[in-house]
Write a structure and sequence with these properties.
Elements: E1 9-10, E2 17-18, E3 21-22, E4 32-35, H1 38-41, E5 47-54, E6 57-58, E7 64-65, H2 69-80, E8 89-93, E9 97-102, E10 111-116, H3 122-127, E11 153-159, E12 165-172, H4 178-196, H5 237-260, E13 273-280, H6 282-292, H7 300-308, H8 316-335, E14 341-349, E15 365-373, H9 374-378, H10 382-394, H11 398-407, H12 411-420, E16 427-430, E17 432-433, H13 438-441, E18 451-453, E19 462-466, E20 475-482, H14 483-490, H15 493-496, E21 501-502
Parallel strand pairs: 10-11, 14-16, 17-19
Antiparallel strand pairs: 1-10, 2-3, 4-9, 5-12, 5-18, 6-7, 8-9, 11-12, 13-20, 13-21, 14-15, 19-20
Helix pairs in contact: 2-4, 5-11, 5-12, 8-10, 8-14
């Protein structure tokens, strides 16, 4: 029989905990209510999840020092007050729809749980490459949707026999995107580190850290208009609006055609799928950029497209998305030749595009759909596909964001969008985490994390994880695939040129 699992120990969540005593802190959160947009709903019921591993930390007396749960929890509550979205509740009624309500008299504090494990040490996990199947089962944190208060944020702390610890965090994706989460983590870690050293944070949160310097606006609940529309009377906006409407018309047609051959309408049950991890080394990424990052690598027939659309570069993200998209499309061409369509949904940060400050912590992750036919991709080289993606990314304007939000207001549109990205289809989404000094900003006072990960049991679907650590530039890709598609993707010649490990 399997060994009994240790029970999770909830940590007292009254604000202002210090040295084991509950001290009531002044609450600075103001009452506010704001609606959730359809772009929020596009994230579904998923959570933003990360795991931070800390090796045994030694103090000046060479004694092992575990993460101080009370201090970290106290810092968590102090930081959350700067992000009132995380302290509210998602409610719904027939007249106002879905919205977040922040009530200072009924704060929805984050849930914190703690457990000790007899499992492997941090060093053993590191030797295994932090492979998911080596993680103790106790690392699984509670599902936020199963808790009575439906908290916006959950933290699960695991202590290992070596003296190391790990933090597993979950944030409701409906109220915050990846960039907002990392801004919150920076405030939380800075607060924890200062309290551990016995210092008071006299700086305002707006002056702390690299992301929020110079701008005190932290939370989207403080923004009056998060996605402003463009005044169509201004010069130059008509072309933008026409392009946005053309894009939306094409998207509607794609939805309708995809719905006609949805996997759920097949007579046979859907094939089971699993999350697989792929790894690209730093050298592989450099080879990818050298071979396909130069626009001169475009095919002769595609150079006209590049010239007409004034494309002057492709990003590393464009190339990585193209590499995976092309391999998946080729696999589906073999398995489902009757379906001509393929598309990728890319999470595109639209803060700067819609006039929101970079410190805006809400959900500004726009679901950009890039469509092609399988026949089109088959005629392209990888650089061609990357320029196709770059063109669509450049087309994301305030008009397009507004029109997409209007389109996705209906439940039917949202259901179609979610159904399109079933693992059995040739469609998938790419959520890219990169260009964030993650190891530096997550020092809670116990040193930098030994490892940061997106576990498969926390984040099903597709995510690209590019480390910003100077000593480890490998990129990890978590991808939900059926067994038959995975077999074809893993053996794809173009794909295997750059993907060093797939399991």
């Amino acid at each position: 029989m399997p060994a009994p699992q240790p029970a999770l120990r909830p940590v007292p969540h009254a604000p202002g905990l210090k040295h084991g005593h509950a001290v009531r802190a002044s609450i600075t959160v103001v009452p506010q209510v704001f609606p959730l947009l359809s772009i929020d709903y596009a994230q579904g019921e998923t959570d933003l999840n990360f795991a931070f591993f800390f090796g045994p930390s030694l103090n000046r007396r060479r004694q092992r020092r575990r993460l101080h749960v009370v201090r970290i929890t106290d810092a968590l509550h102090r930081a959350a007050q700067q992000f009132p979205t995380l302290l509210g509740r998602v409610v719904c009624d027939s007249s106002a729809g879905w919205r977040v309500v922040v009530d200072p008299d009924d704060i929805n504090w984050p849930v914190v749980t703690e457990v000790r494990t007899c499992g492997p040490t941090i060093a053993a996990l590191k030797r295994s490459g932090f492979a998911w199947d080596a993680w103790p089962s106790e690392t699984r944190s509670p599902d936020l949707r199963t808790l009575d208060s439906l908290p916006m944020l959950g933290v699960h702390i695991v202590h290992y026999p070596c003296g190391g610890s790990s933090l597993h965090t979950k944030v409701r994706h409906q109220v915050m995107d990846g960039n907002g989460v990392w801004r919150f983590y920076e405030i939380w870690a800075s607060t924890s580190a200062a309290e551990l050293r016995g210092h008071q944070l006299h700086k305002s949160p707006a002056s702390m850290g690299s992301f929020i310097a110079g701008n005190p606006l932290l939370d989207r609940a403080l923004l009056a208009d998060r996605f402003p529309r463009v005044d169509n009377s201004t010069e130059g906006s008509a072309g933008s609006t026409d392009a946005a409407r053309e894009y939306m018309d094409g998207l509607v047609r794609l939805f309708r055609e995809a719905a006609q051959c949805a996997p759920c309408k097949r007579d046979t049950p859907p094939e089971p799928f699993a999350v697989h991890r792929f790894t690209l080394s730093e050298a592989a990424i450099e080879r990818l950029k050298q071979q396909h990052g130069d626009l001169t690598a475009c095919s002769p027939t595609h150079k006209r497209f590049v010239h007409e659309n004034n494309i002057d570069y492709v990003s590393t993200n464009d190339l990585i998305c193209s590499l995976f998209w092309r391999a998946i499309a080729r696999a589906h061409s073999v398995l489902r030749p009757a379906d001509p369509h393929t598309c990728i949904m890319i999470a595109c940060d639209v803060r700067g595009r819609v006039g929101a400050p970079l410190t805006y912590s809400g959900n500004a992750s726009y679901p950009l759909i890039v469509h092609a036919t399988k026949a089109e991709l088959a005629c392209q080289v990888l650089t061609d596909t990357a320029t196709h993606i770059r063109k669509r990314v450049a087309d994301v304007t305030p008009d397009l964001v507004a029109l997409t939000a209007d389109f996705m207001q209906s439940p039917e549109s949202m259901q179609s969008l979610i159904a399109m990205f079933d693992p059995a289809r040739a469609f998938f989404s790419a959520s890219i985490v990169t260009h964030i000094p993650m190891f530096s900003i997550c020092d809670f006072g116990y040193g930098r994390p030994a490892h940061i990960d997106i576990p498969d049991y926390l984040t099903p679907g597709f995510s690209i994880w590019m480390s910003a650590r100077a000593t480890d530039q490998s990129m990890y890709v978590n991808l939900s695939l059926t067994d038959s598609v995975f077999a074809l993707v893993a053996s794809d010649p173009e794909f295997r040129q750059f993907v060093d490990v797939a399991h």
